[in-house]
Amino acid sequence: xxxxxxxxxxxxxxxxxxxxxxxxxxxxxxxxxxxxxxxxxxxxxxxxxxxxxxxxxxxxxxxxxxxxxxxxxxxxxxxxxxxxxxxxxxxxxxxxxxxxxxxxxxxxxxxxxxxxxxxxxxxxxxxxxxxxxxxxxxxxxxxxxxxxxxxxxxxxxxxxxxxxxxxxxxxxxxxxxxxxxxxxxxxxxxxxxxxx
Length: 196
Fold this sequence. Notes:
Strands 1-4-3-2 form a four-stranded mixed β-sheet, with helices on one face. A four-stranded mixed β-sheet has the order 5-8-7-6, with no helix packed on it. The chain is an alpha/beta fold. The longest helix has 16 residues, at 179-194. It folds into two domains: 15-91, Roll (2,3-Dihydroxybiphenyl 1,2-Dioxygenase, domain 1), CATH 3.10.180.10; 99-187, 2,3-Dihydroxybiphenyl 1,2-Dioxygenase, domain 1, CATH 3.10.180. The protein has four helices and eight strands; from the N terminus they run βαβαβββαβββα.
């Protein structure tokens, strides 16, 4: 791979589409996120297609996929989680320790971390610690905790400072506007100015 200084920057990569984890049992993993995190299934099924085999690099690949999102109705703008079970070729469990290069985690926003910690603990979820106050960095003042999901996937819950229960004069968590919504808002504002 070339060094970054030799590569022209992209003018077309502009955001994330989804996060994906490989799991050993799609039904159990989906149940975890639907029942405990209130996500909803928005797609998926059996993926036994040539384009998938080319994309994943396994000539005999056959996958079961569940695509989940938050909201009612589900809102892709709030993040999409893709769960993948390889029926072929079957893989072996990985060491998901967060200190191992190449491993990842996904962080979920919450409004009351202490309440979620209690609720999920009562449901049998395994946490790495009790909730912690973030004392440094861009999330200073927030509260966070790591936990294990299906197949020991590393997950994080984060309560931003602005979401603290009873926080006065602080904005609540809201979903990020999509580029389309921003453009529509700008057009509406521009139209309103032109019509005055």
